[in-house]
Design brief:
Blueprint: H1 2-22, H2 29-49, H3 55-78, H4 84-103
Helix pairs in contact: 1-2, 1-3, 3-4
């Protein structure tokens, strides 16, 4: 169940990051409400995942994969450019997440 909660926390993290842009500085009511709910959901489900996972593994994967998802969806939704340095950074994050998972023996 820990990995399920972590996956759900990642979805909330991506929604939070993308929603923050849509709030326009928290001046738009419904995007602001949804963004705050996503942030709360992400922290809550991360805390459930960390009942079992090491914080060094869970938090790093949460932020790493959340960052990758934010960049990818940012490119789709907000037409942000994906450059070679961004792609290389994605590869480093993915490699690090895999290494952490292997190191934890999970």
């Amino acid at each position: 169940m820990a990995w399920f909660f972590l996956a759900l926390a990642i979805v909330f993290e991506i929604a939070f990051a993308l929603g923050t842009n849509a709030t326009r500085g928290f001046t738009r009511l419904w995007p602001s409400v949804l963004t705050l709910l996503a942030a709360s959901g992400g922290i809550f489900t991360l805390s459930l995942a960390l009942r079992t996972l090491d914080v060094s593994v869970g938090y790093t994967i949460w932020t790493g994969i959340g960052s990758i998802g934010t960049v990818l969806f940012g490119a789709l939704i907000y037409k942000e450019k994906i450059t070679l340095p961004k792609l290389l950074s994605f590869a480093a994050i993915i490699a690090g997440a895999i290494t952490l998972k292997l190191a934890a023996g999970l």
